[in-house]
TrEMBL record:
InterPro entries: CP12-like, CP12_dom. This is Calvin cycle protein CP12. Residues 4-73 form the CP12 domain. It holds the Pfam family CP12.
Length: 73
């Protein structure tokens, strides 16, 4: 999780730098802030995902195991 925090901080710093050099109303500034917002949205999405239980982890590693079979009607 700290990796995503570092990436967010890096994108925010980049957006500030781009806006300082190209102006706050430039297209480059808007694109830099969009990129920062996308990274923040990705982090929020990852926080909302529920963690997998031990059976789900096992089935990810062993999809052919008897415990992981899914039967359709």
């Amino acid at each position: 999780m700290s990796n995503i925090k570092e990436q967010i901080e890096q994108e925010l710093a980049n957006a500030r730098a781009v806006c300082d050099t190209s102006g706050p109303n430039s297209q480059e500034c808007a694109a830099a802030w969009d990129a920062a917002e996308e990274v923040q949205a990705e982090a929020a999405h990852k926080r909302q995902q529920k963690p997998k239980n031990s059976l789900e982890k096992y089935c990810d590693d062993n999809p052919d195991a008897a415990e992981c079979r899914i039967y359709e009607e």
